Amino acid sequence: MRLVATSVDFEGLAMTIPERINRFLTERKPSIFCDGCIAKNLDLSKPQEAQRVTSAFETTSDFVREYGVCSLCGEVRLAIRRA
CA 46, CA 43: separation in Å to the nearest integer? Predict the structure, then answer.
């Protein structure tokens, strides 16, 4: 998992990719999103960057990873949402 600060939040603090994805999902709870749409919305270079993080998140009780209709693209895909 890449833990390099890649963005700055509204308070001017550097945020890692996992922090950015966590915030994205938390702010949009209970919506569900595929890795591709997460990557596009967070300006990540590849969906694999989101996939590495969401795969780690699914091992916790805070997130649910399942096949469902992505709230952005409308496609049925493996997606994640905040529990």
Answer: 9
